[in-house]
Input
Amino acid sequence: MVIFCFGQKLPRPEMMAPRPRSIGVCDMGENFVITFLEAPMYAINQTMEEWVKGIINS
Output
């Protein structure tokens, strides 16, 4: 599932991932901020970390 949030102002990019197992991607103009909360299950958390690291390394 992908949720788009549009508004006048985003105080902090961390607000894009308010729930475990959700990943926020925020376009800050010159860079992107990717955020997520730690998932309650270790395996899911590892998968999310690998996915984000894969984006950074590509």
